[in-house]
Amino acid sequence: MELIDTHCHLTFDDLAGDIPAILERSKAAGVTGWITVGTDPNENQKAIDLTNRVENLYAATAIHPHDAKTVTRETIAELKELAQNPKVVAIGETGLDYYYDNSPRQDQRRVFAQHLQIAAELNLPVIIHCRKAFNETIEILDRNGQDVKKVVFHCFSGSADQAKIVLSKGYHISFTGLVTFKNANKTREAAKVVPLDRLMLETDCPYMSPEPMRKQKLNEPALLIHTAKFLADLKGMDLSDFAQATTTTTKAFFALPV
Ligand SMILES: [Zn+2]
Ligand SMILES: [Zn+2]
Fold first, then answer.
1. Distance from the CA of 220 to the center of ligand 1, in angstroms?
2. Most CB atoms closer than 10 Å: which of 6, 160, 219, 243?
């Protein structure tokens, strides 16, 4: 079995010191490919450096909406330069976070649009981070994302109706361990409407440990197997068939080598 963790933060302090052991446990669990996501200039560089040392590890680069207020024209120019590294397979995570509002919303909107432009220019997929900002995220994608070919809503926590809107735009949806949480009925209903050729898996580690491992505070790629099993059950499928389908979807979406 072959699963790919499409969104992890291996360069974050909680995980970065233990990479060889984390990747060994991951492979033992059948999670054999990873996309590590950078969130600021420093993390983006660390992510690319790590991909050069680990096989089947790729990077996504962006400035997280939390840090939108720090982004200047130079930041965007540097990001565009960095994202041309062959190990970078996506721009992200970018979008809007109106739950934390760590940056003023007008900065978040500006930086989101700038990321969409880079993705269009470099012909890269976009990983969307969206919290409490669904309608506006769709509006900005409609307005500024016309030339972006591939979009995935990561750590999806919306409703089935919102999932249908995302799907109707031709976008993909990725689920974390959040879908396994006891109070996540709405997200489970959403997962039911997402076909396997649009569905991807991620840990978003070090956050979001899935049930029954939620008590393990530090999530890691090996725990993706629990989310995969949960969603396979939800879809009434064998885990191996489910894994194969979502991995095929992932490889096509991020244009990973087969
Ligand atoms: Zn996110
Ligand atoms: Zn993330």
1. 15
2. 6
Residue 38: nearest ligand to its CA? 2
Residue from 254, 232, 252 nearest 243 by CA: 232
| Residue-wise pLDDT tens digits, 33-85 | 999 999 999 999 999 999 999 999 999 999 999 999 999 999 999 999 999 99
Contact 8, 37 (CB under 8 A): yes
DSSP SS3 for 176:
coil
Q: What is the Å distance from ligand 1's center to 92 Cα? A: 9
Q: pLDDT (tens digit, 9 = 90+) per residue, 89-147?
A: 999 999 999 999 999 999 999 999 999 999 999 999 999 999 999 999 999 999 999 99
Length of the chain: 258
For residues 108 and 140, is the Cβ–Cβ distance under 8 A? no
To 10 degrees, the CA torsion angle through 8, 11, 13, 14? 30
Give the closest ligand to the alpha carbon of residue 35: 2
Asked if 140 and 146 touch (Cβ cutoff 8 Å), the reply is no
Q: What is the pTM of this model?
A: 0.98
Tell me, in angstroms, the distance from the centre of ligand 1 to residue 70's CA.
Answer: 18
Question: Is the Cα dihedral 90, 96, 97, 99 positive or negative?
Answer: negative
Helix (H) or strand (E) holding 134: helix 134-144
- The angle that helices 105-122 and 134-144 make with each other, rounded to 10 degrees, is 40
pLDDT tens digit sequence for 171-210: 999 999 999 999 999 999 999 999 999 999 999 999 999 9
> Closest ligand to 9 CA?
2
Q: How far apart are CA 14 and CA 209, in angstroms?
A: 14
